[in-house]
Amino acid sequence: MTPARTICLGFLLVIGVGTLLLWLPLSTQAPGWNSLLTALFTATSAVCVTGLSVVDVGTYYSFWGQLILLLLVQIGGLGYMTSMTLLMLLLGRRFRLKDKLAVQQALDQTGIGGISALLRSIFLATGILELVGMLALMAFFVPRFGFWGGLWQSIFHSISAFNNAGFSLFSNSFMSYFNAPLLVFTTTALIILGGIGYQVLLEFYLRLTCQHPERFTFSLNTKVVVSTTLVLLGVGTVAFWLIEGNNPDTLGRMNLGEQFLAAWFQSVTTRTAGFNTIDTSKMTATGLFFTIVLMFIGASPGGTGGGIKTTTVRVLLRATRAILRGHEEVIIYEREIPPILIYKAIAVLVGSMSLVLLMLTLISITEAEHGFTFLQLFFEVVSAFGTVGLSTGITGGLSLSGKLLIILTMYAGRVGVLLLMAALFREPRPLRTHYPEETFLVG
Question: Are the CB atoms for 252 and 260 separated by under 8 Å?
């Protein structure tokens, strides 16, 4: 049981338990609705914090079903090892070296020093931010649904947003509230904070509480994550406004202020959240393709989102820039990037693209008779891989084989391609033989 296998099997265990709980009659609104495939799909989507669903969560599941769904989202957002470690700490069990190694791999940390303190910070940050998000959302939902109804709406959507899950109790997500600034900015703030990574949040907290702020230096990871995130959010907002601004089915029917809110929300939610304030199925082909690109990039490492991550894209872009300029070193913020990190970024990109292309090929075969367009299937597969949850409305119409393929894609996207490969194959052994170097033509 290597750390990679522990994590992968742990996610499968949580999905299995979640499936059984959602399959129980008490989890659904009406007798006979407890389909095993629906329970499996929903449990996988929740644990993988995706948000894709073959049913309307708000009307299909009872309060207990929604509560189980929310618990699965919280476990999936924190990660299996992080959640299990919290349970171990609450039970007073000893935190072993093997557990620290598994958490280190799950959180993508460089060492095991300070893992216990980091985990406590993660639990505290998650609780505080979800609580603040709930209180802000109560100011919006309570006047509309009463205290208890508004409280549950606020709790559900705060946890769903912070964990980048995208599940909503409304049948059309937030399309009815596209022009509500309080809801839009609260939800997008939770999505960004959840997807930016716990290490970044911790560094900003240390910067704010530091006695000598001028002496505090952010890590290279934080600098790369924050700058790349800001660029993607800004470019995404402007691009969606330009692409969909004349589309009467999306932004074209809104005034300028509403267009900005909708474009901003769309730019944020494509970063693995899954909520929507416009009808995704009515977006232009260009808008759908641009959304696919943002979904594939995803959030940042150490956060609750998926995708190949912002840091991977930044490393690849800087490596490409270095090659074009004839430089042998890859430099980011006056720091040289080690070759092993570049190799890892290339492996993530190639592995992720291979998985998406394989699943797209298979689902194109299984859904050939259902009349879905290639772009719709492409969108669905990338949404599942990036654990986003956006859909053009075809999820419920997929065949049994198509739904199973989406389930596999969501799982692979959540645990990570490299981690999944490490779990499937034996531990790598260091090479003891060094061969002579020789070059050849590339490109």
Answer: no
In terms of phi and psi (left: phi > 0; alpha: psi -120 to 50; beta: otherwise), the region of 7 is: alpha
Sequence-distant (6+) residues with CB within 8 A of 435 are none
3-class DSSP state of 106: helix
The token pair at 262 is 């909708």
- Copy the structure tokens of residue 290: 């641009």
363 vs 375: CA distance, rounded Å: 12
368-381 confidence digits (pLDDT tens) = 888 899 999 999 99
Tokens at residue 399, please?
Answer: 């065949």
pLDDT digits (tens, 9 = 90+) for 236-271: 999 999 999 999 999 998 999 999 999 999 999 998
Which SS3 state, helix, strand or coil, does residue 61 take?
Answer: strand
Cα 441 to Cα 33, 316, 438, distances in angstroms? 60, 20, 11
Helices (H), 307-373: 310-324, 339-366
pTM of the model: 0.90
CA distance 286 to 241: 12
What's 203-234 look like in SS3? HHHHHHHCCCHHHCCCCHHHHHHHHHHHHHHH
CB count within 10 Å of CB 327 equals: 12
Angle CA(440)–CA(442)–CA(443) in degrees, nearest 5? 160
Q: Where are the domains of the chain?
A: 3-424
